[in-house]
Specification:
mainly alpha; Growth Hormone, Chain: A; transmembrane helix; MFS_trans_sf; membrane; MFS_dom
């Protein structure tokens, strides 16, 4: 779990390992819980605000707030690694929180659906910058041997907060209405997250320099264009991870927008919708405490393939049934599968990236992954408007199963810390 590494070039106080850096690591876990909570305020109530308060009749238009969120978050992810390497991780984290501060206030006071869409564009920037930095900084702190654990704990905090907040907003909405009471949670998250990031977080660039000193020096610097091509298409492991990440968040974007409408179409009460919307991310979050370290021990590929197929099973079950109990099982399966996939994918990308450009490689992966929100919400909305909500869920389930098959064919298991392609980036992968 702990990896102490020192070299003459680094400051004597800088060491790699969870034990050596636990105060900052724990602080970043807490901050990412607030980042996740910002998304959680929208999981249950915002689709219903569009359908019930603003009377948006088209499913595609209802989920348009997720499209704006996904596109902007994907682009923010893409530039976050560049900014992190140039400005430092802390500055990017603080910037993310400053952009996110207005979001809950806009949702509370929005006079039309267009204002909610605009708020979600700001939320996308907040998530793309702040969540990216919390995971990158944790990976910086622990070193190569504990990447899965670091990612698992980061995502545990974020998605447990998503689930808890989804439940709380559903309860508050059932008692006090869709606005403003449920959204007050977002105000607290934004203020606390920004304050802790400004006052207590320390940058981790010295940890990156320390780890870089222990790696084979690259013959020449690698450009961002080369990193983009490498991560997106050229390396078979990075390609497999990027497409799986995209499809994983594609089905999450679909469930975010479609599930509340699907459950409500059968007359399910909003508090019970809140339970279902909480179970999925809470299961996803809690189990990553186990699946992250397991990916360090068992390898990444098996967990990713199995996880995508478990997600597909959960989606098929949800779309094919009409009762709360079966939907609950489907949500549990979806959470279990996502917990298997999420930390394993980030760790797999980290394994294949040199420390000197790991942040940029992760930003490219997260670009493709979070573009899935927009693609999933838009495609599911179009399918739902033409063929119905159940057909939309089944279509995304089939695509999720296919994505797992792509990982099974293309990905090769690679030991943590073995960055063969990163050390010879100019040569195509075999």
């Amino acid at each position: 779990m702990s990896e102490a590494l020192t070299v003459p070039q680094g400051p004597p106080s800088v060491r790699l390992g969870l034990k050596e850096n636990w105060p900052q690591f724990a602080l970043l876990v807490l901050i990412n819980a607030f980042v996740g909570g910002m998304v959680g305020i929208e999981r249950t109530v915002v689709p219903l605000i569009g359908a019930e308060e603003f009377k948006v009749g088209s499913t595609t238009l209802v989920v348009s707030f997720i499209v704006s969120f996904g596109v902007v978050k994907a682009c923010a992810n893409l530039i976050s690694g560049q900014f992190a390497d140039k400005w430092g991780r802390k500055r990017v984290l603080v910037l993310g929180w400053l952009v996110g501060l207005p979001v809950p206030f806009i949702i509370i006071w929005a006079p039309s659906w267009e204002w909610v869409i605009a708020a979600n564009a700001l939320l996308g920037i907040n998530q793309g910058l702040a969540w990216s930095m919390t995971v990158i900084m944790k990976i910086d702190l622990v070193g190569p041997k504990s990447r899965g654990l670091a990612v698992g704990l980061n995502e545990f905090a974020g998605y447990l907060a998503v689930g808890v907040t989804a439940y709380l907003t559903g309860y508050l909405a059932s008692e006090y209405g869709l606005r403003p009471a449920p959204i007050y949670l977002g105000v607290a998250y934004a203020v606390l997250g920004a304050a802790l990031s400004i006052l207590l977080v320390r940058d981790t660039r010295e940890h990156v320099r320390l780890e870089t000193a222990a790696h084979v020096r690259q013959a020449s610097p690698i450009s961002f264009r080369e990193i983009f091509v490498l991560t997106s298409f050229r390396d078979r492991n990075l390609f497999a991870a990027s497409q799986a990440g995209l499809v994983n968040n594609l089905n999450d974007g679909m469930s975010w927008g479609i599930f509340p409408l699907f459950f409500a179409s059968f007359g399910l009460a909003i508090d019970r919708i809140g339970i279902l919307k909480a179970v999925y991310p809470a299961t996803w979050g809690i189990l990553q405490v186990a699946t992250g370290p397991l990916s360090d021990r068992w390898g990444r590929k098996g967990l990713i393939v199995a996880g995508m197929w478990v997600q597909a099973a959960g989606l098929f079950l949800t779309g094919a049934t009409t009762h709360f109990e079966w939907w609950l099982v489907g949500s549990l399966l979806l959470g279990l599968g996502t917990a298997m996939v999420y930390p394993s994918l980030i760790a797999a990308v980290s394994d294949a990236s040199h420390p000197s450009w790991r942040a940029r490689s992760l930003s490219v992966y997260r670009f493709w992954r979070d573009l899935g929100y927009a693609i999933g919400a838009l495609s599911a909305g179009l399918i739902a408007d033409r063929f119905g909500l159940s057909a939309a869920i089944a279509s995304i389930a089939a695509l999720t199963f296919l994505s797992g098959a792509v990982v099974a064919v293309f990905m090769r298991e690679r030991a943590a810390g073995s960055v063969d392609l990163a050390q010879q980036a100019s040569r195509p992968a075999e």
